[in-house]
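tool_call: predict_structure(chain=1)
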Amino acid sequence: MTAKITDKMKFSPAFEYIDDGIEHGVLSPFETKEVILKKGEVIAEGFKPLSGDIRMLKDVPVKLRDGVTIYTDIYLPVTVEKVPVLIAWSPYGKSAGTAPRYKNLFNMLGMGNHWNSGLTKFEAPDPDYWCAHGYAVCNPDMRGIAHSEGNTTMLGSQEAEDGYDLIEWLAAQNWSNGKIALTGTSYLAFSQWYIAAEQPPHLTCINPTEGLADGYRDLAFIGGIPDKNFIERLQVNHVSATGALREDLTKEMDAYPLADAALWKDKMADPRKITVPAFVIASYSNTLHTMGTFRSWRTLGSKEKWLRIHDRQEWPYYYDEKNIEELRRFFDYYLLGKENDWLETPTVRYSILDFQGGNQTDISAESFPPAASETKRYYMNGRFRTLQENPELADFPVNYTAEALPGRTSFQMTFDQATTFVGYPKAKLFMEADGYDDMDVFVWVQKLDKFGNVLSEFVVPNHGAALQDFTQEGASALRYKGAWGRLRASMRQLDDQFSTDEIPAYRFDCVEKLSQGEIVELDIVLSPMGLAYEAGETLRVVVSTKDELGSVMPGTPGAKPDNHEAHILHTGGEYASYLQLPIVK
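tool_result:
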């Protein structure tokens, strides 16, 4: 049966699939066949030659439980040995590794394309490397994508069931050793939370490398603030050669604005149900993936689990040679049964950034935050715009308007000794809206050098003028500027089941508009951090009416706030607003 939740979905026609051998990669023309790709072969100009022979099973049909047939490409080592399988589950074309859009993207980031064979599905493992080390790689086209039957869905139980069915089909193939893993970044990471929670019997381990985990909270309504722009960018990948429909999240946002709708509950992953070994990769810097990755790690049910927090963007990290070798140690242990030193890997490895070339990485710990980290409150002084350890006795309101510059207020503290923060920050703000019944509040924690300059850090290799332009007020996934958070005041209700003093969580199931003169208490969850300040450097927290960080990726607008008239931030007395930070003692 097709998943019941599809009855609640809103659909639009899929985008046209252009099958010209260019738009979706040189191997995209449909043909079910087996072919041997020879060592030294160059799949397309600009990609590296194959390091060995590869057996390619192209456009293999796989029938799902409801009778829908999807198609997958499978890359195998030329061997009589049975092999494990790595699955790259996403809507991105299974043959699109040489597609112009991905070639251009990696060129823009400064990575180029010479690091892979051209067989690499976007954000997926390179079959050339993995086949050479005794693995198969399976690149499926999800239902509704390209020539696969059915209508495309996006996150939730339908994808989870389809992934389950593919895993069990692969385990039954005569060339398979019955051990299957999921790996990949971004979409290929967040699909893992859903599929693994279904507990397919032959799923052996997973490797989520930065991916959101809640379609409502991490994508459509971050902080309760709707943002269709990046979703529209994602959905153009839903292309069909069969006239399929595609689930349209932008329509669903209009139809279901609250998180208690069945559709959004279905898009909320439950990592508590995951039991297989998991090697989870995270960073502080990805404004789309950080929150969901850390949330999933905290609730992950796996007894054998590892977390590595790196200091780069996910693609340079995932395709780094040393990181691939480490990932192979994980897979070798669980999928090939090799006795290696994987189990000696620290449970947690985290990073401390400094924005000035002195990052510390792979710091071992038993938990995140590390045991030496504890929360400390820094209260806002509205009169002097400073942060201090004790609240002011009397309230001093700070006014700023949404419709005039600067549209923000900020508070600073300069350190007299080296100070490091690692863990989960939050902001507690007492605010009122003057002249309107709601407000969207954006918070940003910055680092300033001893001269007062705002610091940031590129997390991709390209630091050129074009990337400077894109990332100055946008493309936040490519340039880390500090911890951030956002919240719509009318959606401020905390979820008692998941919320803690350290990490607020929201229900998002009702709207409580503000009345004139009403002061509301906003607990704003901020992204996890690992940031070091030297003596003489300054921490600045910005409270703004607008999305100061901007869009996630170049060419996509950021969230448009619903702000009018004036915001009033109260500081002191019974309304002592503060920034809570995880200081390392």
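agent: The longest helix spans residues 157-171. Proceeding to next step.
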